[in-house]
Amino acid sequence: MTKSHRLFLLFVLFVMSCGLVLLFVVGTEEQLEPYTVTRVSIPSAATASPDSASASVSETPRVNINTASAAELDALPGIGEVLASRILAYREANGPFPDIGALRAVDGIGDKTLEELAPYIFV
Q: pLDDT tens across 65-116, in order?
C-alpha cells in the first residue's frame, strides 16, 4: 500500500469518525415537554386561617413570568431572591418563556416547585 493510499484511508476514517460523533452529540439534546396543570387545589376560605402562612390564590394576583420584575417574582410562593434573579437571568439570555413548563430549565425549579407556582403564574 502506497503512502497516498494510507493518507486517503486515514482521511476517510477521520471523516467517518467525525460524522459519528456529530450524530450522537446532536441527537442527545433534551427536549422539555410542555407543562400542563392537571389539578389545582385552591384553599377554601373556611379552612384557611387568617394567620396561616399560605395565602389563597384569590389573594395573590397572577404574574406574567415574561414581564415580571424581580420583586413580583420574589412575592410568589416558593420563589426567593435567588430564584427570582435566576429566572430574570434565564429570560434575558434565552428570551421569553413559551409556556410555564419552560421554567423547569431554570436551575432550582423542578416539577414540584412548578406545580406549586402554576396557579399564580401565566405567560
A: 999 999 998 888 888 899 999 999 999 999 999 988 888 999 998 888 888 8
The range of the structural domain enclosing residue 69 comes to 59-123
Candidates 113, 63, 60; CA nearest to 88 is 63
Contact 54, 111 (CB under 8 A): no
25 within a domain of the structure (yes/no): no
Cα–Cα separations (whole angstroms), residue 115 to 6, 100, 101, 109, 120: 60, 10, 9, 10, 10
This prediction has a pTM of 0.54
Where residue 117 sits, what CATH number does that domain have? Answer: 1.10.150.320
Q: What is the number of domains present in the chain?
A: 1
